[in-house]
Amino acid sequence: MPLSRHLNALLAMPAPLRLLMIGTPSRIKPNQKFLFSTCTGNYAASKYPNVAAFVLPEFRTAQLSEISPDELFKTSFLPSAPDNPLQDELTALFTKNPPTFQYAESDFYKLKKNTRVPEVCVLGRSNVGKSSFVNALANRHNNVLAYVSSKAGKTKAITTYGFGPPPLPKDIAAQAAEYKGKEDIPTHAFFLVDMPGYGYASLKDWGRNITLYLTKRAGVKGAIVLIDAEVGPKQTDLQLLELLSTAGKRTAIVLTKADKVKGGLNGLRETCIKLWDAIIEIEKKQETDWPWEREIFVTAVGARDYQVVSSTVTTGRLAVARLAGLVNDTRPKLEKNKKWTGSIVSFDDLEYAPSKEAPEIPQRTQATHTLSQSPVGPGMDKIPKDINSAFASLERASAGPHQGPHRIRPRTFGSQRPRTVAHSHARAIHSSASLRAENPRSKSQPPNSQELRDILDDFINELKFINTTGNYARNTRRQHDLRPPPPKQHDVLEEDRLNRARRLQTRFPQQTERVQAVREKREALTARKIRMREESMQEKKMESKMKEKELREALRSFEGDEPADSLFGEGSADADDSNMPLSPDTFSEAFVTSPGLKENKKQKKKGSKKKKSKGAKAEPEPLDDFEAKFSSVRR
Ligand SMILES: Nc1nc2c(ncn2[C@@H]2O[C@H](COP(=O)(O)OP(=O)(O)OP(=O)(O)O)[C@@H](O)[C@H]2O)c(=O)[nH]1
Ligand SMILES: [Mg+2]
Q1: In CATH, what class is 51-329?
Q2: C-alpha–C-alpha distance, residues 402 and 409, integer Å
């Protein structure tokens, strides 16, 4: 349309509608690729400018820094690669030799042995995006490597995938003798292990399997912990980080679903602050070093815009390659967060200390745990005590999200003594006493009534959380009551059969009709048979009633005055004759004891004696009517 005609048409329109035709620029949705732009030109326009990772601030007062991919990759390089940019090298490392599925097992003890190929496991809550992360690293979008679902609990086994170039033939030949009969010959440079999720819809023995895997598996070089950026870290995530820190495993934290975070960069920053605070707390508890990457990597592998996916997936690749030991890291060593180094004062010492000076108490020796990297062997038969308690809390976590204020609080790993009522009591008073210790008055004067009331309140609050058997049972019962009823079990086989039948019916309508007709005919026949059987039974019943009636009448006519009903037992006259079955025994008895018949018999006997005396020439007397009838009935 020429411009002048366009303008004329525009002017002819009512003024409020003109805007619609022109189109308002504010309606255009911002393209997601600007959110994760790696181009400095778009820096001002982007929502998450150049975010690849956040770095843990060394001091609590430091500004939070988010770092660009350039900065992130600057200090890292692949030793075996030529001088390409690291991003390209990482893409080649993860995709050139197509990644393949290796094996999957739901039980740790059934896993194939692997002591040589470095393994990196991907851990996180159900539905956080672990399997999507594995697919994205492999650059698989349509032809998926790991199964993904929007429903939680899709991955149900420890699933291993091979990544990276195959080992050189000469290396394999050199190690062939060692591998023979013990382990598979490797096809890739490293393994990535997709784990079942924990939390909602997790597997029952997830805690056991994961603890065994992290502490006993020789090939495990590190763990990628995925945390949903939209939801932030949960209690179960922190329990896992605590377990990793206790096991001393190298750990990288990756935020997923960054594209879904409300509040953009600020939202991400808030999640990171929460995470850092928690990590610092976990680090403080550990005596031994916990080698966790100091960055929190940001990814959005499920974003709709492919450019967003590809720019953030390189960040994930860097995290994995670092843990697998394939990337050299030249970052300067950071000083570990400072821990409390003073002595630990017990309640008794504090309360009954003779002087105001701090008492001299020998420092407690802390057990250190060094985890062997060897496969399951004599030294690894038992999981260290600290890890066992972490394992217990993970077991509880794997049972589902806790509800209400009565959940069991995770035990601190440093504490070796079991929590008893008395001990908790002491702790409750101790905490109040230590608070009072800060107040100079409290050391010299006894506590006033308000303070005593506070102490009592503290104590009662503490008691509520004590893990006694009674409390535990009560809490379990309460949780059980709160739990929604289990979903109805589907009969999968039956459903399959019905679906198949439905499909066949639509495919073969004529045959279906014929089958339907035959079925109807068969049903009609069966119904007819049943009806006929019922009718014949009815007839038989009627017949037997008629016979009985006839019999009674015959008896009555034979007896004359005597009522025939007396023959059938006491009270039979009152009873309804038609309903009185006449059993053969009763009948024969009645027959035998009938006075008329007795006389008849006597006469017969006399007659037969006479006949015997006269000889056997006499003719047999003919049976009268009654006898003839009865003999037929008895037959
Ligand atoms: N928007 C968005 N969605 C994502 C992202 N990553 C994963 N998802 C979606 O999250 C859902 C769960 O993904 P999965 O990869 O199956 O999660 P999982 O952690 O393996 O889950 P389980 O196997 O149940 O433990 C899927 O619908 C994915 O498409 C992301 O970065 N952004
Ligand atoms: Mg999965």
Answers
A1: alpha beta
A2: 10
